[in-house]
Amino acid sequence: MQFNLALTLTLLTAFTGAVVAFNRFYYGRLVEQNALQPSRVILTIIDYSRSFFPVLLFVLIIRSFIFEPFRIPSGSMMPTLVQGDFIFVKKFSYGLRLPVLEKKVIETGSPKRGDVVVFRLPSDPRINYIKRVVGLPGDEIVFRNQQLFINGELVQTSRDVNAPLHGRVPRFVEMLGERQHGTLYDVPANRERDGSWIIAQGEFFMMGDNRDHSSDSRYIGAVPERYLVGEAVLIWMHMDGIEWPNWGRIGTKIQ
Question: Residues 12-38, buried b or exposed e (16+ Cβ, 10 A)?
Answer without folding.
Answer: bbeebbebbeebeeebbeebeeeeeee
